[in-house]
Design brief:
Blueprint lengths: L9 H11 L4 H6 L16 H8 L9 H6 L31 H6 L1 H4 L21 H6 L1 H4 L21 H6 L17 H11 L4 H6 L17 H4 L7 H6 L33 H4 L5 H4 L29 H6 L1 H4 L21 H6 L19 H9 L4 H6 L17 H9 L6 H6 L8 H8 L36 H4 L1 H4 L21 H4 L3 H4 L8 H10 L1
Helix pairs in contact: 1-28
């Protein structure tokens, strides 16, 4: 089946669209996603093969290839088929170097300068998910986190051309793609570092640290719809920035240029905003999480008792687990402060150890459910696993992650549970899998997947398909022109989607292996031509 995807990377597609627009057949074929096609909610390979992959711990639905070709089976219909990515590795791409123009070009994801348009088709329907950084990355327009500026004054005369993608990209303010919000797009502490290193004249620093650089006139308004801001969202940093009026985050400034007086930040209590009767049924959490934040555990991971540190061996008691969620690790392991990365040397202080739980190692992120008791199984039976709430809070029950043979609690705690013969308790069995010798199921899954029993033929059996140009002087930057790419299929990357072996269908289970699927492109549905840098270079030189 023909997939809705970009064959080239987004930067090249943008250049192609700006130069030729999406009416060009070549541009539509190679940049379909950027031109607005809608990904189908279907499996691109046989559903029976998808089901085999899904049950394999090694190659389950969290494997990017499998999620891409088994969209329906893996409940991945809302995933974009291409997102903004860094072109260099994590050692090259660091936020602290984003003021360097070369780093900025190569590290768009890390530096947060991807184009301001949504890459998911369901962004507006799921606007409440803007609290998640990964969702904001895919839906910057909906979540209003773009740097909102027209490229030049010519945009003022192009308001009637906003239906064209090239105009939308160049003129986001004129085309009402975004609003001029005023806040630092990145952590204020990082802004302080960048200002010291590059100063506010640097274009990246000026755009990403607008508030710290005093580079904008603050408008006290909500930038998201009222029904979003009016929910119980003000305890989250992102919503305090885009719901400034509702959350009471507006500054009261004096007329002097030297001082600015700000009102104290309100304290946000983790509570249900709806009635007790409305929130009492936890199985409704996928629908009610924003109005029942405390019940559904979406507003933090805190201990309610002051003596929870001494109650760890009572976590087998459900009542204690509810009162000591962080200590018992019945919630998502996360830091409560934004500056924890600078406070790790103070982890010996009780307050920092509690507020920076992940940084200080009080808890770790593992494959587990983040709700108490059997709630995840009940919700799964009632609603399935399609919602983002289930992905976040019931990842183990829904198979979004692979159970590891590790202890989630400390070795000392697990040793004591084993000594007290508590390994038969379900809570202990989950939290101390390794110590309690409960890894057999996981080991069998990971060591004996279906694919390892299938021998791989060592050599191609069918002759390779010849891919060649039929005229001389083929030029990659001429490919979109009428008649060129049919006569220059090798240069233009349109040789077709074919298998170079005649046994590809028999060995579908090897498709996640890049060395194999390069020989079976049609069967494995990976007909993407790797970007030829000369195309992008020639397009940019033409511009």
């Amino acid at each position: 089946e023909k997939r809705c995807m970009d064959v080239y990377d987004r930067e090249t597609c943008r250049e192609l669209i700006l130069r030729y627009d999406c009416n060009n057949q070549y541009v539509r074929d190679f940049c379909g996603l950027s031109c607005g096609c809608k990904p189908h909610c279907t499996d691109y390979i046989k559903s029976s093969d998808c089901n085999v992959f899904k049950t394999s711990c090694e190659k389950g639905c969290y494997n990017p290839y499998i999620r891409s070709v088994c969209r329906e089976t893996c409940n991945a219909c809302n995933d974009p088929e291409q997102v903004c990515e860094d072109k260099r590795d994590k050692y090259f791409c660091t936020k602290k170097d984003c003021g360097d123009i070369e780093v900025l070009k190569q590290c768009q994801k890390t530096c947060g300068v991807c184009n301001c348009y949504d890459t998911r088709v369901d962004c507006k329907e799921n606007i409440r998910q803007c609290e998640r950084s990964s969702f904001r990355q895919e839906c910057p327009q909906t979540c209003q986190v773009c740097h909102c500026e027209d490229e030049d004054s010519s945009c003022r005369s192009k308001y009637d051309q906003c239906h064209e993608l090239s105009v939308k990209i160049k003129c986001p303010v004129t085309c009402n793609i975004c609003k001029k919000t005023c806040f630092d797009d990145i952590d204020p502490n990082l802004c302080s570092f960048l200002i010291r290193k590059f100063n506010c004249q640097n274009s990246y620093v000026k755009n990403k640290c607008a508030m710290s650089c005093n580079n904008c006139h603050e408008v006290c308004e909500d930038f998201l719809p009222g029904y979003v801001c009016s929910g119980n969202v003000c305890h989250q940093d992102y919503f305090r920035k885009v719901c400034k009026n509702t959350c009471g985050e507006c500054k009261e400034t004096t007329t002097t240029t030297t001082t600015t007086t700000t009102t104290g930040k309100p304290l946000y209590e983790c509570k249900d905003t709806a009635s007790d009767s409305y929130c009492k049924d936890k199985t409704q959490c996928p629908n009610n999480a924003y109005y029942c934040a405390r019940t559904c555990q979406t507003c933090g991971c805190k201990d309610e008792r002051s003596d929870c540190d001494r109650m760890i061996y009572h976590c087998t008691n459900p009542d204690i687990r509810i009162q000591c969620m962080r200590t018992c690790q019945i919630c998502i392991c996360q830091d409560d402060r934004r500056d924890c990365n600078q406070l790790f040397h103070q982890c010996n202080r009780a307050r920092i150890f509690s507020q920076c739980a992940e940084t200080c190692g009080k808890c770790k992120r593992h494959c587990k459910d983040n709700l108490e008791g059997e709630i995840c199984e009940e919700i799964k039976r009632k609603y399935g696993c399609e919602s983002s709430y289930m992905n976040t809070y019931c990842s183990a029950s829904c198979g979004f992650c692979c159970l590891e043979c590790v202890d989630i609690l400390s070795k000392n705690d697990c040793d004591k549970f084993k000594k007290y013969k508590k390994c038969g308790d379900k809570y202990v069995g989950i939290m101390c899998r390794k110590t309690c010798n409960l890894c057999r199921d996981t080991t069998q899954t990971t060591e004996s997947p279906v694919v390892t029993d299938t021998p791989r033929p060592p050599t191609p059996i069918a002759p390779q398909i010849v891919c060649k140009d039929y005229i001389k002087n083929c030029d990659v930057n001429q490919c979109p022109k009428e008649g060129i790419y049919n006569n220059c299929p090798k240069t233009c990357g349109v040789c077709g989607c074919v298998d170079n072996r005649n046994d590809c269908n028999r060995y579908m289970d090897h498709c996640p292996d890049p060395n194999w699927n390069s020989q079976c492109k049609k069967t494995c549905q990976i007909c993407r031509k790797k970007i030829d840098n000369t195309l992008l270079k020639s397009l940019q030189e033409y511009k």
